[in-house]
């Protein structure tokens, strides 16, 4: 009978009941799965392992930068040791040429129980990022900044007329180090830097300051304008250095409690900082010289104010 044959293809097309099939699996399998993940995002891929290893290395370097600094060069290392910088280790390149400075550095470390470690030149190159270390490096902990209020209280307790330098828009750590050294040399009491957009006391600043950063307090200000107003409340005159000021260094009296504000050579002081200053003072120079480097300008003013204060003390 037609339709009841068991021959292949003779089955009734409208047969009722369950039909065999995939249950929708084939249809779902044909759906798109989105873009293919990057190789570094696939946990089974070698690129993923390489990425994770790089992240671990970067994290290690970041932690090291946060916890320690390396001062390099024989003179800076010796000067830091004489200044009693709180060093944690001295690295000396294997086979480095010996001289009086290297011997003195090793002797000073031995007297202060600072470990002296011999390492390869390649390793010290890697630690410093260059080969300008003269075969020696001094590891020091991260700089401990002073508090502005503590700085004011310390100067008040000394009974001296404070002499402070505030830096605005100074991003070169070498300038910071040079300013710290000048402030220390001319009897200043401290340096104030902003928390943001400013150089910090790094290994470069340690080196440029020749170890004076260990003895001179450096404070960080959350807001430099408010900090200057706090100094004014404490009786300080705030003097900003800029060309075309209403006063010049030749005529200004810097014998009282004074804050010197130094801006960058290019940008100068920010608007709010400039407006907060009691006085804008310029340094007389020959006409064809446009401006002085920030650290040089600070040193010139500090030297003149120190001279005025010495003369005031002379009977």
UniProtKB/TrEMBL annotation:
<dbReference type="InterPro" id="IPR029026">
    <property type="entry name" value="tRNA_m1G_MTases_N"/>
</dbReference>
<dbReference type="GO" id="GO:0008173">
    <property type="term" value="F:RNA methyltransferase activity"/>
</dbReference>
<feature type="domain" description="RNA 2-O ribose methyltransferase substrate binding">
    <location>
        <begin position="70"/>
        <end position="146"/>
    </location>
</feature>
<dbReference type="GO" id="GO:0006396">
    <property type="term" value="P:RNA processing"/>
</dbReference>
<comment type="similarity">
    <text>Belongs to the class IV-like SAM-binding methyltransferase superfamily. RNA methyltransferase TrmH family.</text>
</comment>
<dbReference type="InterPro" id="IPR029064">
    <property type="entry name" value="Ribosomal_eL30-like_sf"/>
</dbReference>
<dbReference type="GO" id="GO:0032259">
    <property type="term" value="P:methylation"/>
</dbReference>
<keyword id="KW-0489">Methyltransferase</keyword>
<dbReference type="GO" id="GO:0003723">
    <property type="term" value="F:RNA binding"/>
</dbReference>
<dbReference type="Pfam" id="PF08032">
    <property type="entry name" value="SpoU_sub_bind"/>
</dbReference>
<dbReference type="GO" id="GO:0005829">
    <property type="term" value="C:cytosol"/>
</dbReference>
<dbReference type="InterPro" id="IPR029028">
    <property type="entry name" value="Alpha/beta_knot_MTases"/>
</dbReference>
<keyword id="KW-0808">Transferase</keyword>
<feature type="compositionally biased region" description="Basic and acidic residues">
    <location>
        <begin position="52"/>
        <end position="67"/>
    </location>
</feature>
<feature type="region of interest" description="Disordered">
    <location>
        <begin position="1"/>
        <end position="69"/>
    </location>
</feature>
<dbReference type="InterPro" id="IPR001537">
    <property type="entry name" value="SpoU_MeTrfase"/>
</dbReference>
<dbReference type="InterPro" id="IPR013123">
    <property type="entry name" value="SpoU_subst-bd"/>
</dbReference>
<dbReference type="InterPro" id="IPR004441">
    <property type="entry name" value="rRNA_MeTrfase_TrmH"/>
</dbReference>
<protein>
    <submittedName>
        <fullName>23S rRNA (Guanosine(2251)-2'-O)-methyltransferase RlmB</fullName>
    </submittedName>
</protein>
<dbReference type="Pfam" id="PF00588">
    <property type="entry name" value="SpoU_methylase"/>
</dbReference>
